[in-house]
Amino acid sequence: LTGGPSVSPALCAVGGAFLHNEVDLQVEPPSVRVERLQTATVTCCYKSARAGLSARWEGLAPGAGNRTASRQRNVTLDDRVTRAEGRKGNWTCVTLTIRQATEDDTQLYRCSLRDNTSSTPLLSPGTYLKIYNTSEKLINLSERTKNHLIVLQAVILMLCVLLPGTALLCKAKQQSEKSLDFKKKRREEEENIYEGLNLDECSMYHDISRSKVHGPYEDVANLRGSDIQLEKP
C-alpha cells in the first residue's frame, strides 16, 4: 500500500502483489459501538487506478480462530443488512448498513478487494462492531413527574435543614428565659430579706442591747461634786 492516508501492508492480509502496489486503503476506525436495535454502519474506502476491482464484506466473529483470509466468512445481504457503494472525491467507499442491530452482529468487518486476475483478495484492517445493550428502565417516568420529584426532594432537604435549626433556637431561647427568671427571682429575694421583720421588736432589741452594753459604765463628768471613794491598792 502507498500514499499518506493508506494503511501499511503489514496490517492487511496477504494479497496479490499488484493489489499491494496499486490500491490505497483509507484509514478506518478500529471499532464502532452501537446501541442494540439501532442502525450500525461500517465504511471502507479505497483508491486504485486499476479498473475491474470488486469489494465485498467479510466478517470474523469473536473466537472464530486465526484472523486470516481462509477464516473469513462472507456477510449475507438481505433487507436488514445492505451494501452501498459511492464516490468521495478520488476514493471509492463501500458502506455496510445493519438495521436493528443485535448482539449477533458483533464481529470484525473487513473489506475484501479482488479482481478477475487475482485469486487472493486484499483485506482491509477492518472495523470491530460492538453492539451493547443499555439497562432497561425499571420505572418509566414522564418529564413532568421527574420535575415534581425534584421539587419534592428540594422541599424535604430544606425541611431537614430548617427543623433541627429551629428546634435548637427554641431550646436556647427557653434556657435563656429560665436563666433570666432565676436571676430576677434571686434579686427579689435579696431585696425583700427584711420584709417579715416587726419594727417595734427591732427597736426593743436595740434598746436592750444598748442597756446591756452601756449599763456597767458611768459618766465621770456627771459624778463631779459627789464623794468618790477609790479603792486603795
From TrEMBL:
Keyword set includes Nuclease: no
Bilayer topology annotation: Single-pass type I membrane protein
TM spans (from-to): 149-170
Location of the Ig-like domain: 5-124
Pfam family, one: V-set
UniProtKB keywords: Immunoglobulin domain, Membrane, Transmembrane, Transmembrane helix
Subcellular location: Membrane
Biological processes annotated in GO: B cell differentiation; B cell receptor signaling pathway
GO molecular function: transmembrane signaling receptor activity
Gene3D superfamilies: Immunoglobulins
UniProt xrefs under SUPFAM superfamilies: Immunoglobulin
Cellular component GO terms held in the UniProt record: B cell receptor complex; external side of plasma membrane
InterPro entries: Ig-like_dom (IPR007110), Ig-like_dom_sf (IPR036179), Ig-like_fold (IPR013783), Ig_sub (IPR003599), Ig_V-set (IPR013106), Phos_immunorcpt_sig_ITAM (IPR003110)
Protein name per UniProt: CD79a molecule, immunoglobulin-associated alpha
Provenance organism: Lepisosteus oculatus
